[in-house]
Structures are given as C-alpha cells and as structure tokens.
Amino acid sequence: MKEILTPRYERNYKTISVEDQKKLADSTIAIVGCGGLGGTMAEEFARLGAGRLILVDGDTIDETNLNRQLFSTEYNIGAKKVEAARQRLQAVNSSVKLTLIDDWFNQDNAADIFSGANLVCDALDSIQRRIDLEESCHRLNKPLVYAGIAGWFGMLGVSLPGDYSVLKVFKDGKENDRGVEKTWGNPAFTPWVMSSLAVAEAIKIIVGREPALRNSWLQADLLYMEFETFEISK
Amino acid sequence: MEVNVKLFATLRDGRFKEEKANINENTQISDVISKYNIPREEVKICLINGRDADLNQILKNGDTLSLFPPVGGG
After folding, report:
1. Out of A171, A179, A223, closest to residue B73 by CB
2. How high is the ipTM of this complex?
3. B73, part of any domain
4. Is residue A76 a contact partner of residue A61, using CB atoms and an 8 Å limit?
5. Does the CB of B41 have a partner CB in chain A at under 8 Å?
6. What is the CATH number of the domain that holds B18?
7. What is the rounded CA–CA span in Å between residue A189 and residue A210?
8. What is the pLDDT of residues A72-122, one digit of tens each?
9. What CATH number is given for A7-231 in this structure?
C-alpha cells in the first residue's frame, strides 16, 4: 500500500482511485511486441503503476526504429529491445516488476509467456501472428487489447475470450501477412496515439470498468482527424 | 441505381472520402473495387450499411458501402 500512496500517483486519484491503483499494482500486463506500439504502451503502464509487465520481443534495435520507437536511441542501436525496455522502464518506475522475454510469441510458448497475466496487449506487426495471439488468449482465457497502424491511420479494439474480434477484423494473414503499412510506414505520431488509446481501454479492463470497444473497432484517421467506431458483426 | 461509397485510411489517397456512385443492377462489391482501381489485397473489410459483407455481395439502391484496408503495423 505504501507504494501506492506516494506523490507519484496522487494527481491521478480522481481518474484512477486509490482502490483502482491497488488493482493496477496487483496486475500483470503482457505486451507482445516492443516496437512502436509496444514501447509506448509499456512506458504508460509503468507510469500508471502496473505491478508487473511481461514484455515479449526477440528483435534488436536498429536505425529504422528511431523514427517512432520509444526504447530506441542513438546510443542503443544493436541492443536487444527487451533490454532497452528494461533500462528505460527501471528509470521511469523502479517498483514495476519486469519479465523480459527475448523471443517471439507463438502458440506453443503462449501458456508459459502469459502465465499470471491479467491482460494481453497486441503490439505485433504481423497479421497472422495477431490472429494466432487472439487464439492463444481465447484458449488461456485472457482479455486482449489490439491495435494496428499504417501511415496516418490506426485501428483499435478489445477482444474478450470467445469474441474473436481480431479474426473478424483481420480475417486471414496467410496470403498477405503485412497490411498497407509496408508502403506507408509508421511515423511517430500514429503509434503514440494508438498505443495511448489502447492503454486507456486496457486500464478499464484492469480496474473492472467496461471497455468501450468490445465487438467494435475504432478507426482513427490522423490526416483528417476523424475517429469513428464500427460494429463487428457477431 | 445509386450507392454511397465510403473509403477509409489509405484507400482515400488519390481517390475520395465519400462519393455517390451510379451502378447497374446486380453489381457486386468486387465490381465497385475494380471501378475505382483499388488493388484487391488493399481491401480487408467491406461493410454494407454497417454490416460485414463479402466481396461477391450484390449492392442495392441506396446502400452505403464502406471499404477499409488492412492496417497491421506495430
């Protein structure tokens, strides 16, 4: 309790009550992918006071990450992404426990990786692995928040066990595993906006509020500044 | 007959956000996608009047067709 009642969180109390802060401190949140979306998600969960973060990414930082990825700097090119994450997050909030998985998620390692997780965040960049991740979350009974980005554009939603919203939105990744991001890239503002929106949905699930984007997805257009929600057919 | 076509995200590039389209009877969604020279792999979600629809679904007068590309980056 003394870790919660600190000046760090006191300005959040109207939004995130002391009781909710306790739920956050008791929570374990898994983030799959520590790139553009995952890096910003992890930073926000650390600042919000999540108890433990499980970070999953087998990649290393390279120069092309510098345009958007929070953990990448000119000083850590070549470092493992999860190690760069550890350095940053320890400096941000040393009370957050970190479980670093320097590996790629797959359906076979999911049960081990997500052991103890209350929530999983999809910050992947492969459509097929997004679909596989949802299948694993369904099997392991974990709520999932997913976000995807390309250029000026993003999408975001929540999939609870049995919903299969990711499958309904992305349908199939076997023919085209990557979307229009392969030509449009991901400039900094898009992952930062979408990961913040994802964290807002995730926090509601952690504290026991209704997420806004179950059985629907948010389509975000930062070029025209349009945010529109569409229902997903059941 | 006339349908309302709405494009989202990258599909708007060089095209439009929303347009009334004059089409013949028995026009399928895939015909509309071809009409606007949209590569098939750039359409991930099709909605007719807000409901999920297949590419071979036939449009009716007054329908609103919404098309979305795959946005899968992280």
Report:
1. A179
2. 0.93
3. no
4. yes
5. yes
6. 3.10.20.30
7. 27
8. 999 999 999 999 999 999 999 999 999 999 999 999 999 999 999 999 999
9. 3.40.50.720
